[in-house]
């Protein structure tokens, strides 16, 4: 049985480096994926992933067990990514006044997990993934963040609310708007492949 995140944090506070390394290995891929999808640049995402864990390590004493360790780490990563976007002067707006019927709802996770492609379609599948990433990048940050956390990272509404410092209702509302905007952006820019 794996030790809990809280146990690893406690041991890392006692300067047990191997437990911090275990925590790092447990979350590095997910945090990299989250930052990469927010930023859209692998090199910057790698850098910010490292910076996230440096901040986690430097702030071990500040961690309060009222919240989940994973939410704390995602919050640090999200803040670093948003700071990076601000420093680049990133500003995109997309009209979110879109009505999408129930049969048009689709999640990013569904699109990425679709295994209906034949082996001959690997190139098309790779193009689809790139187009999905481009469409995600076109979303405003507050919608992109919720879409990635819920549909790509498969986190619960509770966890996402804790990470972004908001309510579950806000998460649900943003996710609904983000999905509708994503579908609209994807169809307008990359055709109707859904």
Automatic annotation (TrEMBL):
PANTHER family, per the entry: RNA POLYMERASE ECF-TYPE SIGMA FACTO, RNA POLYMERASE SIGMA FACTOR HI_1459-RELATED
Keyword DNA-binding: yes
CDD domains: Sigma70_r4 (cd06171)
Keyword terms: DNA-binding, Sigma factor, Transcription, Transcription regulation
Pfam families found in the cross-reference section: Sigma70_r2, Sigma70_r4_2
Keyword Isomerase applies: no
PROSITE patterns named in the record: SIGMA70_ECF
Protein family (similarity comment): Belongs to the sigma-70 factor family. ECF subfamily.
UniProt record, GO biological process: DNA-templated transcription initiation
InterPro entries assigned to the protein according to its UniProt record, in alphabetical order: RNA_pol_sigma-70-like, RNA_pol_sigma-70_dom, RNA_pol_sigma70_ECF_CS, RNA_pol_sigma70_r2, RNA_pol_sigma70_r4_t2, RNA_pol_sigma_r2, RNA_pol_sigma_r3/r4-like, WH-like_DNA-bd_sf
Molecular function terms, GO-annotated: DNA binding; sigma factor activity
Domain (RNA polymerase sigma-70 region) ranges: 23-89
SUPFAM superfamilies: Sigma2 domain of RNA polymerase sigma factors, Sigma3 and sigma4 domains of RNA polymerase sigma factors
Protein name: RNA polymerase sigma factor
Domain RNA polymerase sigma factor 70 region 4 type residues, every copy: 130-181
